[in-house]
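Sample entry follows:

:::
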Amino acid sequence: MTSTDAAASTRDKALLGTASIAVALAAADTYVVVLALQDMMNGVGLGVDALQKATPIISGFLLGYVAVLPLIGRLTDLVDRRRILGVCLALFVVGSAVTAISAELPVMVTGRFLQGVGGGGLVPATLALVTEIWAPGRRGAAFGVVGAVQEIGSVVGPLLGALVLAVSDWRMIFWLNGLLGILLAIGIVVTGRGRTRQRLGPAIPRWWHLLTALAGAATVVVLGLALWAPDSLTTSIRWGGPFVPYGDHTSRLLTPIGVGGLIALAVLCVLSVRYWWPVARRVDVIGALLIAVALGALVLTFAASNPEKQVVGPLGWWLLPLAVIAAALCVWRQRRIRNPLIPSGVVTGRVRPALVVSVCVGTAIVAIVVDIPVLARLTMTDSQTTAALVLLRFLVAVPVGALLGGWLLRRHGPAFIAAPGLLITGLALLQMSTWGAHTLDSWLLPTAMLVLAGFGVGLAIAPVNDAALHDAPQTAHGVASSLLVVARMIGMVVGLALLTAIGLHRFYGRVQSLHNPTKAQVTDAGVLQVQTVFLGAAVVALVAAALAMLLGRHVHRARDTSQPVAEPVNS
């Protein structure tokens, strides 16, 4: 792309805008289950007393979001990024539809997993797209927009969920997700026209396309009917036979029509090999599986736990050793093969401090997102909605900071934007660590501190991405982007667990020191736990502020815009 081509520039910006909206949709879906979880549990036959069994609904999405990110990042460097965006949106749409029609927990978890894979893959593809469209020195504002839109999604998600639930049921949330995903996929196709493509394998004949399309249509229709199981068919004497489960089974998949749908899916998978094999053979699939196992085990260890009561999930002590073994094998493989999943030279220069800062930012964000509602429910309300409105003050400030941080990159180096922002967040968290049982009864102080904390975190988003992707090889921007996202998610999952462990230790220590503790004393112990988490998050944010000074103090000067920007291998 050359900046002198005004039409191409406009198309590319429209493409990035469409991709950014898709990122926002995926971010919204991360939080949309906050209000709908109880209804979703009822939809798959789980009562209010089975909350622990429902944790896979949340952890399944996180697992899909994180575990395959490095693989998608690598594919982003090898394949036209429009195709990656299209495939990720397709997975998101399929996952939304499966979730919407699910009547069994395993089916719902599968749908949420597919949503996570598709939604997570959109982020590195979009960040890499920024580096493809803009030369160094001109990317700051675009990074700021992507970061801001992603954070706006986290604000809009619960609000849209509440709006839909007010007029319909929880299934409509996911049908709307699917519809929006289809519209965005069409937008990717339209705005991405005219960009060069690279064929990675021999031409595929039209009859194979037709056969694959037929198998896909059969899978959608037959398997969709099996999972949906409409009453008009299942209760019909004429048409109900295929919906009767085999033997004593109750699963909708273990029916004649369900098995037929699974067979159609298997045929579709076999036919699809011809499309993805030319790409897969260029990727370290074994390395990708090892990373997926390591990250997946880590996520399930901590994400499946209740942060108010426990640190490690029910299978954590089995999953943690598995994560360590898989990670060790992955590192060994990285050093042994010629073309590893993460190419040599990617984690270099300012990529290293950027990854550490991303971990710290994730920890600071999740400490506030989780423990502000906890504090609100402890001290001022029993309503989850009211507690979420308290948190909204923080969430709204993050995208504002992200936009400003991207704009400031035109005049200031990344270090001089990220470090002050994280310092502001750290100082705000330090003040929040002194909050007591009546602090949230007032409006001014909590609002000021939450806004400052969110604004400071937002300021750091664009500079971290800009510094890391400036130093990473241009042919590996997808991998580098995925590592930044993984680092932030690890900070969220593991950081929260460690801070919660310290907080719970102080909570139980306080309660055990009391003889016949009253309700007020137990509440004070809970407040102490929240204070501990905020204090730990403050320390993490201040460490991140110091490390952010390594992100570079000089402004990235734009290249000569009369020359074309070097394109990655996929364009």
In short: Confidence is low (pLDDT under 50) at residues 1-8, 560-571.
